[in-house]
Design goal:
Elements lengths: L9 H6 L6 E12 L4 E7 L9 H5 L4 E9 L2 E6 L7 E8 L5 E7 L2 E6 L1 E10 L7
Antiparallel strand pairs: 1-2, 1-5, 2-3, 3-8, 4-7, 5-6, 6-7
Length: 132
């Protein structure tokens, strides 16, 4: 699973009985920092937590935003030719050289390698849904 390759994964592991793969999810933010040495991505989890904290229950949260920081980026490619919202499948795997292979495929296509990854934040929030 993607989260096991990242530092600070304890909280997200406790939120879910089994942490879901990141499939067809809304990507909130992609940011390249420090002359390309750091990369930040924020995205919506595909589904809400199985075991949300009490304060999330009291707040009536129904969605989760995760922010990841990845460092020492190599071989970055990025393609975005759409006016659609950023969305896609996010994959994070450990390769034979001990680097993280990160890819996004969807309305944005992105690949790179990183030496380290960290779950910077996991936040509950309310996303309004419009029912007909």
């Amino acid at each position: 699973m993607w989260h096991k390759h990242l530092d600070n994964n304890y909280f997200i592991s406790k939120l879910y009985d089994e942490v879901p793969e990141i499939i067809d999810t809304e990507i909130i933010n992609i940011q390249i920092n420090h002359e390309g040495e750091e990369f930040t991505i924020s995205f919506m989890m595909p589904r809400y937590a199985d075991n949300p904290p009490k304060k999330w229950i009291l707040a009536n949260n129904n969605s989760i935003i995760v922010e990841l920081d990845l460092s020492e980026i190599e071989e970055l490619t990025l393609t975005y030719n759409s006016k659609e919202l950023l969305s896609g499948d996010i994959k994070i795997e450990l390769n034979d050289n001990g680097l993280l292979d990160v890819s996004i495929s969807g309305t944005v296509n992105l690949t790179f390698k990183a030496y380290a990854g960290y779950i910077q934040s996991v936040k509950g929030l309310i996303v309004e849904t419009f029912e007909k």
